[in-house]
Amino acid sequence: MVPTMTSVSFIVLVTCSVALGAVYRTRPSIHEDHPEKCFYAPTNSFYSPGESFTVPNQCVQITCSATFSFYGTGCGTIGASDEFEIVPVDLSKPYPDCCPTIRRKQEFNNIDLDTNDIEI
Fold it and tell me: According to the UniProt entry, where is the signal peptide (predicted)?
């Protein structure tokens, strides 16, 4: 069976939404009381290199690096064609499950992606 343009577009879109993310790095953050750890000032918390944590009410994961910088990973952005809709961020879930996703709109659920025929 040869894939149609719609099914190929869907696969590419889903692959891109899973593969893309936002990544950032901070300058080293060291506190004099614990020079061997990363210091996260917003919560006055200390983390060992390699240790990761999530931030309440944000869909990100932050990791302490060996240089005492923080690396943050977030969802990035996604887009959807007319037959799909974006499911927004769900902050009740941990990263990366909290990231927005796409789903097929209800009115398009009866279209067969292989034939583009509407099932009645």
Answer: 1-21
